[in-house]
Write a structure and sequence with these properties.
115 residues, six-stranded mixed beta sheet, elongated
Amino acid sequence: MSKTRSSQPQFPHPRATVLGYDAGIPIVPVTVQRYDRVTQLRISACPYCGRSHYHGGGRPGEDPRNYQGHRTAHCVDLKLSMRGYILRIVETEPRQNSRAGRSTPSRRRVVHVTK
């Protein structure tokens, strides 16, 4: 007997955490990430594709809890993820510099000397 693979992806994805369901729509935990100019809500593992996704969480000074609720999934394969998910904040990370981890070009002045 040979095993056959199902063409249907597994739902929820094995890496994803689902807190529950509301009318069949998964409720997923998100982490608040604050930057200098924006706040983002991060899903560590999408219930549809298993990848992390980011959603807007407002500007500095705004309460990111106002941005919880139903959102469209940012998956590449939209067939499975069309229903989206419901975001629930479970953790807030400390404020981060928006340039952290980015390489910035050197600002040294280059002088060409000709003889």
